């Protein structure tokens, strides 16, 4: 039985390998695909190649769409992380500025107390000069009055 089966397969293999698909376009513009040559009044395109599939590109397009959405989501997360870092940095700078202002204001109060207790004109003049310089520092640091 195998003796008859193997020649049969050998004879049928070239028939399968020679298969071609004909794309026929009718005069009305309708497309049809067939395994025989097109009629004379139809425009013909012979499609050669190995495997023809009825699968459309929709799964690939869906995958590309999903990939682009994932990229967009990654970019959005990266932007959110950058914004969070920037906000954290601004908060840290604000806290440091508040500390600096409190130190300057505490120094100003100390100098004002010393000025009220000063007895010599020279010491009063020096304290007033330091207070004026400190007032400039407070203004430069944009501390609230």
From TrEMBL:
Q: Which domain of life is it from?
A: Bacteria
Keywords of the record: Signal
Q: Which residues cross the membrane?
A: none
In which residue ranges is the amino acid composition biased (Polar residues)?
68-83
Q: Which positions fall inside the DUF4124 domain? A: 9-47
Signal peptide (residue range): 1-19
Looking at the record, which segments are called Disordered? Answer: 66-92
What name appears for this protein in its UniProt entry?
DUF4124 domain-containing protein
Q: What organism is listed for this UniProt entry?
A: Aquitalea palustris
């Amino acid at each position: 039985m195998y003796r008859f089966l193997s020649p049969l397969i050998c004879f049928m293999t070239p028939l399968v390998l020679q298969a071609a698909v004909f794309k026929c376009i009718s005069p009305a513009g309708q497309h049809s695909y067939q395994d025989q040559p097109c009629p004379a009044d139809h425009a013909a395109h012979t499609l050669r190649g190995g495997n023809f599939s009825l699968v459309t590109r929709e799964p690939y397009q869906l995958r590309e769409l999903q990939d682009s959405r994932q990229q967009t989501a990654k970019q959005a997360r990266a932007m959110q992380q950058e914004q969070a870092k920037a906000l954290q940095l601004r908060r840290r700078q604000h806290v440091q500025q508040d500390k600096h202002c409190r130190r300057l204001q505490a120094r100003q109060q100390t100098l004002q107390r010393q000025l009220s207790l000063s007895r010599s004109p020279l010491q009063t003049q020096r304290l007033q000069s330091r207070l004026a310089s400190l007032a400039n520092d407070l203004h430069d640091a944009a501390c609230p009055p």
